[in-house]
Write a structure and sequence with these properties.
alpha/beta, Cobalt-precorrin-4 Transmethylase, domain 1, Rossmann fold, 4-stranded parallel beta sheet, flat, disordered N terminus, disordered C terminus
Length: 356
């Protein structure tokens, strides 16, 4: 595998060189890394089983890997034996879920992403100040359910720009919007624009709710997409940010765009006549799945890999305080891992791609 300039150019007319443009940043964000490591360390420290409410992150490979190590995934806390230990996923939970866990004397580890917690706190504050809160997000998504549960009497979900006409508020002068952290930036701002047409005094949240990683991955895809015949996004179907990357690639000029869970889902027919393939991955995707895709593309003749970096991420979050306290009490070192520092799983060959 080779590296080339970060400038993205269309392949020269008549060229037969096949290449991959590898978007960076991609893959695990700090919140996902924190949540996954929390389950791993809980299994090491307490032993199996460790229960997890919902999927710890929206990635099939990660969930299956943790389940094989002893994590037990459940839909609700009433499926967890009384007094057992349960981890709350990175997407966050409502106060009602916390109360249900307490009623069953469950030992909880809250792996909610701190950026989701920030949105929860905004919802609580605006509700206390008697605002109507418009939550831009996807109805039924775990993160949206958790945020809405902070103030259900004040929050209404706005699914898309087309849903704006259905919004009804008590006082258009006491109105604020917040958002799910994993949305398309462009679609969210279009929703806000339409809301502001109806409600000119709509207030903004104090800071961006769409997380840095979601934005960075979308920017990177926009950078490579115009030069790509095909863009492949590695990510699961229930991963909101992965699905958005597929859409962003098309909107930014890619000729075609596909989402896959693993390299096994690649269809060679997608690449007929293609010279440039873009590759990215959602924020819940371990890098090893991307490497598998690159190996498969190499076998299809796409052996030149150019990593195109639009941002550098160095944000880290501490482990959940409950787990951190137990590790410290036992004299166990508390890890502060980043995506780059985590080891390649034993037995897997890492492809060498020099960042540029």
């Amino acid at each position: 595998m080779t590296s080339a300039s970060t400038a993205v150019h269309d392949a020269a007319p008549g060229t037969t060189t096949k290449r991959v443009l590898l978007a960076a940043p991609r893959g695990y964000c700090a919140g996902v890394d924190r949540a996954v490591v929390a389950v791993e360390k809980a299994l090491e420290h307490y032993g199996a089983p460790v229960y997890v409410r919902k999927e710890i992150v929206h990635n099939k490979f990660v969930v299956e890997t943790l389940a094989a190590r002893g994590a037990v995934f459940v839909n609700e806390t009433d499926e967890v034996p009384e007094g057992a230990r349960v981890v709350f996923s990175a997407h966050g939970v409502s106060p009602a879920v916390h109360a249900s866990a307490a009623a069953r004397s469950l030992q909880t580890i809250d792996a909610t992403c701190p950026l989701v917690t920030k949105v929860h706190k905004e919802a609580v504050r605006f509700a206390a100040e008697d605002y109507d809160i418009l939550l831009i997000g996807h109805e039924g998504h775990e993160e949206v359910e958790g945020t809405q549960g902070e103030a259900p009497e004040r929050i209404q979900v706005v699914n898309s720009p087309d849903a704006v006409d259905d919004v009804v508020v008590r006082d258009p002068d006491r109105l604020v919007w917040i958002s799910q952290t994993t949305l398309s930036v462009d679609e969210t701002m279009e929703t806000v624009r339409r809301l502001r047409e109806r409600f000119p005094n709509l207030q903004d949240p104090p800071s961006d709710d769409i997380c840095y990683a979601t934005q960075n991955r979308q920017v990177a895809v926009k950078k490579i997409a115009p030069a790509c015949d095909v863009v492949i996004t590695v990510g699961s179907a229930n991963s909101s940010n992965s699905v958005r990357l597929v859409e962003v690639a098309l909107e930014a000029g890619a000729r075609s765009s596909y989402r896959i869970d693993t390299a096994a889902e690649l269809d060679p027919a997608w690449f007929d006549g293609a010279a440039t393939v873009g590759v990215t991955s959602g924020a819940s995707v371990p890098e090893i799945l991307v490497r598998d895709v690159l190996e498969s593309l190499d076998r299809l003749g796409f052996g030149t890999v150019e990593e195109v970096r639009t941002a550098t991420e160095d944000l880290m979050f501490s482990l959940p305080r409950e787990l951190r306290a137990d590790l410290k009490a036992a004299g166990t070192p508390v890890p502060r891992l980043t995506r780059e520092s985590r080891p390649t799983p034993e037995g897997r060959q890492s492809l060498e791609i020099d960042p540029i």
